[in-house]
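2024-03-11 09:14:02 INFO receiving multi-entity request
2024-03-11 09:14:02 INFO entity count = two
2024-03-11 09:14:03 INFO echoing inputs for audit
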Amino acid sequence: MSDTQRSGAGASGEELLSLDATELARRLHAREVSSVEVTRAHLERIEAVDGDGGGDGVHAFLHVDADGALAAAEVADRAIADGGPVSPLAGVPIAVKDNMTTTDMPTTCGSRILDGWRPPYDATVVGRLRAAGLVPLGKTNLDEFAMGSSTENSAFGPSRNPWDLTRIPGGSGGGSSAAVAAGEAPLALGSDTGGSIRQPGAVTGTVGVKPTYGTVSRFGLVAFSSSLDQIGPCGRSVLDAALLHEVIAGHDPRDQTSVDAPVPPVVEAALAGARGDLAGVRVGVVSEFAGEGYQPGVSAAFTDAVRVLGELGADVVEVSCPSFSYALPAYYLIAPSEASSNLARFDAMRYGLRVGDDGSRSTDDVMSLTREAGFGAEVKRRIMIGTHALSAGSYDALYGKAQKARTLIVRDFTAAFETCDVLVSPTTPTTAFRIGERIDDPLAMYLADLCTIPSNLAGNAAISVPCGTSADDGLPVGLQVMAPALADDRAYRVAAAYETARGESTGPRIPELRALEGSR
Amino acid sequence: MTAVVESAPYTVEEVCEHFDPVMGLEVHVELNTATKMFCGCANAFGAEPNTNVCPVCLGLPGSLPRLNGAAVESAIRIGLALNCRVRERSGFARKNYFYPDMPKNFQISQYEDPIVFDGYLDVPLDDGTTWRVEIERAHMEEDTGKSLHVGGATGRIHGADYSLLDYNRSGVPLIEIVTRPIIGAGVRAPEVARAYVTALRDVLRGLGVSDVRMDQGSMRCDANVSLMPKGTSTFGTRTETKNVNSLRSVERAVRYEMGRHAGVLLSGGAIRQETRHFDEQSGTTSPGRPKETFADYRFFPEPDLPPLEPSADWVESLRAGLPERPWERRARVQTEWGLSDEELRDLVNADALDLVADTVDAGAPPEAARSWWVSYLAQQANTAGVALTELAITPAQVARVVAMVAEGTLTNKLARQVVDGVLAGEGEPDEVVAGRGLAVVSDESALTAAVDEALAAQPAVAEKIKAGKTKAAGAIVGAVMKATRGQADAARVQELVLERCR
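2024-03-11 09:21:47 INFO inference complete, emitting structure
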């Protein structure tokens, strides 16, 4: 883009990158800026800071489709210029986690095993993005098949936290949250099975939402754990996430677990919350999510957030959910069990990687060699755990018992929501840890999802909103707000009120990435 | 030892001197729904390989199943016809195992809570008695694709050079109907097995839920057989015989396995629990490839499909709409129509019973309806090389033709021309009559005019008739019939000729 064009638009590329989606959409609709300009600015930002996974960039993206994005931007610009009805986010760029199918880009799930596969169909959510005129920039990095909390399990190398490139951006959707935090995209889609939207949101200082299970179609989301997976929005503000939420949510007959109910009014709730009044809202602090294992700076930031909620008029009470202590072990039986079945289809017969097919080997051998070569260590670990948990001798003691624990967790939520409108906790017990720090210690890695998993097991809504930085390391902390199923709007309202009250006090939303830019 | 035994199996009579046979029959039925069980692809046999496929039935990453309501309806109707209970809340489960023709490497099936269970079928045997076969359950599942193993001697995967995969069948809805152990049939066990599968086929055909073509695989039977020493009640080790592709083969496979088991057991051997393949040519069974490991299918609830909760109202409306059981219908029409056993058998063998019954329901007398279908229409079908049911004429149309004959609008000869017209696609019988101008000329004045004209044209003949030589009237009748293109009633013409010459 030439300087002439840039000045003609009345906003510099850098300024466009700092705007949230809501403001971008306003300027697009007012025709103060074109989608092509906005898209080009983001593509340039990606070019500048993303790197190639070799270690010096954010590496949020696995695939960038500049031509496709600019073409979509032109279409959006024409639609806006025609003056007809366009959706609120028309023309706004977006990044898509690479476990949602796209006809015009590869879908790898961060795995070698899908090598060369080009999906013949768009995921329902991708179709909705296109229909609403959003501009897909590319596909973002993730832990292989969304299994992990750091993106270190991606076959294509980890993404890096824009706040500190030596640290993880969370996972599995670290690519999506890092892209939003780094100004590479104003919005992104993630998928949350145990915290994969919210925990990356927390550690990158962005907003991440896991909607109520069944309210966003999973058709075209490559399944990890079908009863837990839920697609949701990532953004730099609660209102941005709400606008995206309303684009992607709604009944889909192609997904039979899709709920045929009206989408909760989350945009209205975010706007209402931003007015800053939480009078009469009953906020429950989950007492189990505190103490040992929680970084002092995280606990302090959370305590301060609870104080702010009280100042906004909320009635803050402490609630106990004793069964939440079963959540982590139950999750690490249910999710791998479903995964062991969902990932069985990757067998070299129809698409993706094929290893050892030299004419001398049996089908079984080719399947085994392909899966051996194509899956990473964490995926294999979970397939083995799940296969064991479902086997005839272990089913009752492992999978069956985990489902009972799940029922108890649902009951704890039900009881807590009888006395509280929302529940709050830290999103994750620590700030972003260093790349490599936990990769050889799966149990330590799994603890990152301690506070987020219960909402997946129960299927209710939860949001992570930035909650300042930790005093001990200066890194972002997330506040999690949980709401009952189909009451996503409550979580949005409380999160928006808190966001407004906190203001801009914790520093830049878009980290400067000095380390990277300095090295170039 | 084994080889000797298998070459000289015992007869069922010899077997039953020492043992009581126990059978369990598992019948897989492909439903004839328009689309597959979990996607919109056509459910059709014989298409080009891999043409009736989509992301869902290919199990592509990200795809999700969407249950076909018509398959559920068929499953419930089958259950009701088999006197089963319908479960208020049932669910699907995944059966996990790796096989290349199964694109997800799991099969969506039902496990602990099949949709229908606990029923029975009263099966007519050859001697006119019935045998009650208890049904344990019938459950829904999706079919797999098909593997074609190329090269090697057996057409099976072992020893093949390569294999081709066709996923057209992947996701076709199946019902698996499982009997409780059939005990006490003794020497009649092979016959009971055949009669059960026959009766089941007839019930399913009556329901219209499946093509039930064993030769095309739309109905497949696995026969489990074991023997227990006479006077005991502990089941012996069973074998499961697959690839039983005809009704006759069901009987032969059970008979062969009974004899083979007895041979092994009586010589002090033990039966190995295994899957065996039936060979149509030799009428014998051979062991399948031994499984190296115990198959653990790791069933667990299918998380992509919600529980199935058919409403009581729906179930009752399906129950009310069940057709008569085929053999009950046969017995009823035999009495009502006054048919001999032979006439009934001819009707059944000609596959004409339903057609005749429907024609009678449309108002035709049974005798006329039966006559049309087993003679003239059967000849037309035979000439055209199609099944009677495939002829392009409906029972209602046949009934209309019969009615027009009864009214005197058509002679039998004209009626056949009308039927020809319907078969040729010229429309409804009335349209054919109008289009071809086939109605009997019953207008007296028109007939009288035609007679007068003929008499005037042949004055010599007229004189002879007037002189009392009534036989000469034949020439005038012939001329009138010719003039009216055969549409006049010849007897009436004869009367008119004599009247006019009086």
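2024-03-11 09:21:48 INFO post-check: Residues 264 and 270 of chain B are 6 Å apart (CA to CA).
2024-03-11 09:21:48 INFO post-check: The longest strand of chain B covers residues 130-142.
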